[in-house]
Amino acid sequence: MGNELLYGHWGYVLFYSVAWSSFVFVLIRPRMFREFAVFALFVLFLIAEFTELYGVPLSINLVSRWLAFYPQTELFSRRSGELWRILFRQAEKAETGGFDPYYIGGGVLIFGGLGVLYYAWWVLKAAQASGVPAVTGPYGWVRHPQYLALISIMLGFIIAGPTLLILMMFPVVTYLYVLLARWEEQEALTKFGPAYALYTKRTPRFLP
Asked: Per the domain annotation, does 5 fall within a domain?
C-alpha cells in the first residue's frame, strides 16, 4: 500500500491547474496590470501545488536528504507526499485508518474560501451594476473578502499538502494581495468619497 503509484499523472496536473485558474479568474476578473501580475503568481502557486500533488513529489525528495531520521523513499510512492507526517515523525496515513487531519483542515479552508469567493462575486457584481460600493454580504464582514478567500485557499493547500515552493510563495503572494487591497481602497475613496470612508471605519480590512 505504501508504494502505490500516486504520481506521474501529468494530465491531472494540467486539468486541475487550468480548471482552478479559470474558475478563480472568472470570479475575481483582474483588470489592471498589477492585478494580472498577482493573479499570475497565484496561478504559479496552483501549478506548483498540483505538480507535486499529481506529478512528482520533489519537495519530500529534497527534504529527505536533509533529515537524518528519514530514510530515502521511492520517489513516486504514497509516502513521498506526506510531508507534514514525515517532518513531525508521525505514522503514515494508511496506518491511521486513512484519517488525515491535514487534509480535513486544509479542505475546510480551501472549500470555505471557494464559497466566500463565489458569494463575494455575486455581491460585487450587483454593486457594480448599480454603481455603488459593495458593502453587504461578505463585504459587510471584511472589506476584501475575495482576497481573504484566495489567501484562505492558499493556506488550505499548505496545510493539506505543503511543498517547498508554495511555502516560499505564500507570504509573497499574501503580501501582494494586501498591497492590492490598499491600492483599491484609495481608488474607492476617490470614487465614492465620504460614504466609502465611513465604510472603511466600521469594517475591518481582512480579519472580521
From this structure: no
The total of structural domains in the chain comes to: 1
Does any domain span residue 1? no
* Containing structural domain, residue 134: 10-202
Inside any domain, residue 123: yes
Locus of grid cell 499570475: 40
- 3-state secondary structure string across 98-164: CCCHHHHHHHHHHHHHHHHHHHHHHHHHHHHHHCCCCCCHHHHCCCCHHHHHHHHHHHHHHHHCCCH
User: Could you tell me the pTM of the whole model?
Assistant: 0.84
pLDDT digits (tens, 9 = 90+) for 107-159: 999 999 999 999 999 999 999 888 888 999 999 999 999 999 999 999 999 99
- Distance from C-alpha of 188 to C-alpha of 166, rounded to nearest angstrom: 32
CB count in 10 Å sphere of residue 23: 13
53 close to 165: Cβ distance less than 8 angstroms: no
CA dihedral (113, 115, 118, 119) positive or negative: negative
Classify 9 as helix, strand or coil. coil
